[in-house]
Specification:
- This protein has helices at 17-29, 42-49, 80-101, 109-114, 125-140, 150-155, 168-175, 204-218, 311-324, 326-336, 357-360; strands spanning 37-39, 58-66, 69-77, 121-122, 183-186, 189-192, 223-228, 231-235, 244-249, 256-262, 266-271, 276-278, 284-286, 289-290, 295-296, 301-308, 343-348, 352-356, 363-365, 373-377.
- The chain is of the alpha+beta class.
- It has a nine-stranded mixed sheet, with helices on both faces. A four-stranded antiparallel sheet has the order 1-9-10-19, with no helix packed on it.
- Helix 3 (80-101) packs antiparallel against helix 8 (204-218).
- It is globular and about 60 Å long.
- Bound molecules: adenosine-5'-diphosphate and magnesium ion.
- The site of adenosine-5'-diphosphate (ADP) has 22 residues, from helix 9.
Length: 387
């Protein structure tokens, strides 16, 4: 993943509903915790869930730090033991994936590849699978997603949190070691050119959400909400069968700008408003980099939220459509949504919201954000039309 685990904060306790407020409040106070998507009215959902009419589903939560972010998994079930076991297994899976893909852990597959000196490396199946996916998405997005960008990210200090503005010549030199087309994945054998470095930070958390969700389903859980550092993976619907209601965090720092109702979906947001630094030149530099220039994206988009069944697809697209900018992102959706269905919510710096047609009825603008104008994106019309 991009970056290391900075604090071994382990809040892994499976708690009944009554203790969740305390844990969530505690987490909120921690420095690195940031929600792109705020869990919305979970507490009131649970009160309904606990009525005897509903089979006494209770909420059980696990909060922990992994993959450089805070995660909170909440499952709803009427069997406390089963719920706790399922949560434990889902958390263990996240730990196992992190161990495979950490850039700094010397035992990880990614570390082995990054220090292979151009020699082929046999990696675990899951690593080969996610790498192939990342390379395929890099091709599909014409390099907007770039899994070999790590040296450039490091030069900007985004992997160490010691930020700096690299010289133009330095960036130019580092870009010579960037290029997804020079990663060879043949079964479980992966070859990376000497000097290149891989990082699965832009897709790993989405994949982790998919895996954790699948484990919960295998353990018999039908209703769960996984918050993976702001990425949301919804397993099923709320215990009463209705959609989850998520608050979408405003990229302008004013709470939430809208709510979204979904079931059985992943919701992943990318923006340059969460991890960034202000340079000595007073300019704001965000952590998503345009692989073509080596500089942080600055194209008028404030955030990109992707909604789809597959979390890793959401993760790959949220990063890459953010890199593309508004018109290329809309064009991408138009050419790909049939074979690879997804919905998106694009927010521009000038406070416009572009929503794909399917999701429009599921989105509600916050009262306080009524100045934001919504433009539906449809498959037929060339440009979104004002509502
Ligand atoms: P986050 O992981 O912060 O929620 P993203 O999923 O959008 O956000 O991933 C951004 C991460 O991916 C960055 O922290 C960085 O490690 C890496 N990254 C930045 N730009 C790119 C890019 N164009 N392609 C692939 N990875 C990128
Ligand atoms: Mg991403």
């Amino acid at each position: 993943m991009s970056g290391t685990v900075k604090e071994a904060v382990s809040l892994m306790e499976v708690l009944p509903e009554s203790d969740q407020n305390f844990v969530l409040e505690f987490i909120k106070k921690l420095r690195f915790f940031s929600l792109a998507v705020i869990l919305w009215i979970i507490m009131s959902i649970t009160m309904t869930a606990c009525s005897p009419m509903q089979g006494r589903e209770e909420a059980y939560s696990a909060s922990f730090f992994a993959m450089d972010t805070y995660m909170t998994f909440t499952v709803y079930d009427d069997d406390a033991k089963a719920a706790r076991e399922a949560l434990q297994q889902a958390q263990e899976e996240i730990g196992a994936l992190e161990a495979l893909w950490s850039v700094t852990d010397e035992d990880s597959d990614i570390y082995a590849l990054n220090h292979s000196g151009g020699q082929p490396v046999t990696v675990r199946d899951e690593t080969a699978g996610l790498l192939s996916f990342a390379v395929k998405m890099a091709q599909e997005t014409d390099g907007a997603l770039e899994p070999t960008l790590y040296p450039v990210l490091t030069a900007w200090g985004f992997t160490t949190e010691v930020n700096r503005i690299p010289a133009a010549e330095e960036i130019e030199k580092l870009l010579e070691c960037v290029g997804y087309d020079r990663v060879k994945v043949e079964g479980s054998l992966v070859t990376l050119e000497d000097g290149m470095m891989l990082d699965l930070g832009s897709v790993g958390k989405g994949y982790a959400g998919d895996r954790a969700g699948r484990i919960l389903i295998e353990k018999g859980i039908n209703s769960a909400l996984l918050d993976i550092g702001g990425n949301i993976q919804a397993v099923g619907a709320r215990p009463d069968g209705s959609d989850w209601r998520l608050g979408l965090r405003s990229p302008f720092g004013e709470g939430i700008f809208g709510t979204l109702q979904i079931s059985d979906r992943a919701v992943v947001t990318s923006g340059n408003y969460e991890r960034y630094f202000i340079g000595e030149d007073g300019v704001r530099y965000g952590h998503i980099i345009d692989p073509e220039t080596g500089y942080p994206v600055n194209n008028g988009l404030a955030s990109v939220t992707i909604i789809a069944g597959d979390g890793k697809l959401c993760d790959a697209l949220s990063t890459s459509l953010f890199v593309m900018g508004l018109s290329d992102a809309v064009a991408y959706w138009k050419t790909h949504q049939e074979e690879q269905p997804f919905d998106m919510i694009l927010v521009t710096e000038d406070r416009k919201i572009y929503l794909t047609e399917e999701i429009k009825g599921k989105f509600n603008l916050q009262k306080e954000c009524k100045d934001m104008v919504i433009y539906p994106v449809t498959s037929s019309v060339a440009e979104g039309k004002k509502r």
